[in-house]
C-alpha cells in the first residue's frame, strides 16, 4: 500500500515530534539533514536550463498550488508542502479522504469511461465488444422505473433465490429462508458445503476465503478468515447478549476461553501444570486436536465487550464512539429490513429473523476478535516473531481439514470446485484431493466457527450466508436496492469496502475494469512510447535495488553471512512493470472471455457469470506452474503498487505510472521522490515482518539468524515508539505504532533508498530547473515533491 499526503484524516505530529521528512532516522534506515543551497547553477557552476515540457509545467503548477510558503519547513514540513492543498481540497461525498491517489483513480476512471462509451464497431475483438456491453448493461440500470416495473428491478435477484428457476452459467444458492418465512424447508436446501462453494464462486466469501497460493514451484490452497462486513466495534453492544440466546447455546465455547495451543500428547486429565487436555466433542477420530486450558478457569465463555479496545481511551470519546457504533448498527439493521421489505413487497411479518441473523453475525465477529485479533500483515510481534498465525505457511493438507473440521464436507467442497474449473486441473488432482497442501490461517478460529455452526439453527446460518451474498451485490441490482446501499454507505463512509462510487458511471467503469482489466489495457495501450516507459521504470527499479544493496553492505549490525543472503534476495527479486505482454496476444485475450455470456440489459447476471468464470480460472491454477510464470493477478489500470512475498516480486501496474508519480519527461528530482519512493517502499516489504519469512525464491522459510533478529527488533521498536507519539486528528487518540509499524518501516525505508539512488543518479545527467521554483535547490524540490 501507499502512504501519501492526505486530507483531512492524516496522522499529524504531536508537538514533541520533529518533521519526519527531514529527521535523521536512528533506525533501519538513515538519511542526513539536508542543506538549503542556491539552485541557479549546477555542481560545475554552469547556468541551468528550465524544463518547459508540458509535464514539467503541470508539475510546477501543482507544486506551487499545494505549497504554503508562509510556513517554516523546519517547524512543520507537512504544512509547508501541503498547506494550501489542505485549505482548498474538497472531499467528495462518497470518499473519506482526498489525496493524490484518489485524484489519480478518478483520472483513470475518466480515461476508461471515454473508451467504454465509444460505439461498438464491426471488426472489433469479441472481448472488447463484451466489455462495452457489460458497461452498457451497468448503465442501463439507471433507466429502470421500479415503481412501475418491480420485476425488472428485483426479478434477477429473486430468480437466483429460487429453487424452481435456474440461470445459465450461474450456480444455484437456493431460497433465502427469511424471505419465504415458514415455507422454507431445510431438508431441501443445498448442503452447507455446496452453498459455501457456490457463494464463493459468485464472489462472496462467507465463512472463509479460498485462494490459490504460490510458493516456490508449487501451489496450495490458502484458507483464511473472513470477517463480518462491519467493523468489530459496531457489534459491541450485541456481544453481552449472546450468552442468553438459545440459538447460541454452545458449551464448546466454554472450552475456548483460553486456548493455548494445539497439542498431540493429551491424556484427558489435569496435568502437573494445572492444564486440562480436552478432546473436542465429536473429534474422536482425530485425538491430536486437543485444546488446553487452565484448571481454575471454568467460568462460561464471556462475550463482554469491555476488553475489546487494546488502546487506552478517554471516557468521553468512548461514550461518543459507542453512540456512533449503535447508530451505525441501527442503520445496518435498517438496510437488511428495507431490503427484505422490498423483495417481499412489504411483508413486515418476515422481519422476525433479522435479530437472529444479526446476533449470529455478531457472534462471528466476536470469535474473529478473540482468535485473530491482529490485522493480517501489519502488526509486528516484537517477541517470538515466528509465531504469527497470519503467515501463508503451508501447514496442512485437505486430509488434515477433514480430520480437524469433520462437520464440513471438505472433500466434496473441493471436488465440486474442481469440477467447475477446467478439465486439465481436474485431471491433475481428482485422485489426490486429500493430499492437496493447505495453508490454514487461525486454526482456533476455524475450529470455533464450525463448532458454532453445528450448534446453531440451520435457518439462522443460511439467512446469514445468503444475506452476505445479497449485501455483496446490492450495487449490481436495481435502483431501489442501490439507493438503500448508497444511503447506508454515505452514513458510514469508513466501511471496509472503499470502492463505493455515488456517480453511476464511476461504479460501472470501475466494475468493467475489475472484470475486463486486460481488455481495457489492450484498448488503451497503443501509444508508441509504452516500451520506452517500461525501460525507464525498469532502470529506476534497478537503481533503487542497487542503493539497497550498498546500504546493506554498510550496516555493521548485520553479520557478513546474512548480508550475502539479504542481497541475494534483492538480486532475485523480480519486477512486473505496467502491463503483462499477454494483453497484446489477441488469441489469448479472446480465449479468456470466449465462454462469457453478456446480456445487454441484465448487469446482475453478467456480474455473477464473470465471478464464476474467474473463480474457475483461479482453481485452474492448482498445478505446478512456477509463480513467476503465472498470469498477472493485478488489473493493469490499478492505482497502486504491490510486493508479492510468495514470488518475491514487485508489481507496478500502469495505473501508478502516471502523473503526479511518473512521466517520461520528468527530471529525476520529480521521479525519484515519487515513483522511486514507491519502488523502495515495496522493495522493503520483502524484508519487513511478513516479507522476511519468505526467501529469495518465494519459499516460506526461517532464514534470518537470531543474531540479526535481536538488533532488528530493537530498531523496529524505535519506530513503534516514534509513531506512537502521533495524534490522530479529530479523534482524541494517539496512533498505535505497533499496528502501523510495517508501513512506517517501508515509507521511511523507501524514502531513504530513493534519495540514495537519486544522489548518485543526478551526477550522471544535467539537472533542470522548474518554472516558478528556481529558488529551491534540487534537494529541496526532492523533499517537497515527496511531501506532496
Automatic annotation (TrEMBL):
Belongs to the peptidase M13 family. Residues 73-215, 320-580 form the Peptidase M13 N-terminal domain. GO terms for cellular component: plasma membrane. Its cofactor is Zn(2+). It comes from Artemia franciscana (Brine shrimp). Keywords: Hydrolase, Metal-binding, Metalloprotease, Protease, Zinc. InterPro entries: MetalloPept_cat_dom_sf, Peptidase_M13, Peptidase_M13_C, Peptidase_M13_N. GO terms for molecular function: metal ion binding; metalloendopeptidase activity. This is Uncharacterized protein. SUPFAM superfamilies: Metalloproteases ('zincins'), catalytic domain. GO terms for biological process: protein processing. Residues 641-788 form the Peptidase M13 C-terminal domain. Coiled coil: none annotated. CDD domains: M13.
